[in-house]
Amino acid sequence: MLKQITSDLKRLADPDRAKNLSRFFKTGKGEYGEGDVFLGITVPEQRKIAKKHSAIPLNELRSLLASNVHEHRLTALLILVIQYHGADENSRKDIFDFYVKNMRHVNNWDLVDLSADKILGNYLHDKDKSLIYMLAKSENLWERRIAIIATFQFIKNDSFHDTLQIARILLNDSHDLIHKAVGWMLREVGKRDLPEEERFLSKHYKIMPRTMLRYAIEKFDDKKRKFYLNT
């Protein structure tokens, strides 16, 4: 099944799109996606392949996830999400453990954003969450992004405490991709409980990175947005 997946992806490769994606995902030397290889395949196309091959066993999926080809890793994660949401509790634990064990391959922002809340966050929503606090303090950029994005699942269930705690941990993070992720999650909190988001902002907006703040207040009205940006 692994060979069929890679063959299906290869047939959809678009060299021109691959060049654009390589630039967009910063694959140059010293950039966050250095060394990532793109085939140039859209996410909807990868979703179709993931659905077609969703029965692939984890031992084969591990090889796909370990590939240096971006679309191989993303397709593997899309399959993993499908498997997780169709599994019983015992199998979900196996998939969660697999995800954690292979987290080093979840190493670009789209890979994180399309999997972290759906697997890590979903599994931990009613369990001990010390793992995400450990990840939030990691030196690895992607582990820190996984930590905050995983809390999106909690937000969807109207639970905001862990998102706000992780956001505090990441307030002084140096990377733009963390600023964007934290701001996005704060905005999602505000969609469901605006006073809760504003209580957080009132304490921290003066020291927040500007990108984080801009993402957090994106849906505010002009007057309120100007207040936070200009005060």
Topology:
Blueprint: H1 2-11, H2 15-24, H3 43-52, H4 58-65, H5 70-85, H6 89-101, H7 109-113, H8 116-124, H9 130-136, H10 141-150, H11 152-156, H12 161-169, H13 176-192, H14 194-204, H15 210-216, H16 222-230
Helix pairs in contact: 3-5, 4-5, 5-6, 8-10, 9-10, 10-13, 12-13, 13-14, 13-15
Question: Can you give keywords for this protein?
Answer:
231 residues, mainly alpha, 16 helices
Descriptive notes:
Helices cover 68% and strands 0% of the residues. It is built from 16 helices and no strands. The chain is globular, with a radius of gyration of 19 Å. The termini are far apart.
Number of helices: 16
Helix content: 55-70%
Q: Please trace the helix and strand order, writing H or E for each element.
A: HHHHHHHHHHHHHHHH
Q: So what's the overall shape? A: globular
The end-to-end distance, rounded to whole angstroms, is 57 Å
Let me know the average pLDDT.
Answer: 96
Biggest sheet descriptor: none
What are the segments in which pLDDT stays under 50 over at least 5 consecutive residues? none
State the total count of DSSP E strands. Answer: 0
Report the β-strand fraction as a percent range: under 5%
- Structural category is mainly alpha
Global Rg:
19 Å
Q: Summarize this, please?
A:
With 231 residues, the chain is mainly α. Helix content is 68%, strand content 0%.
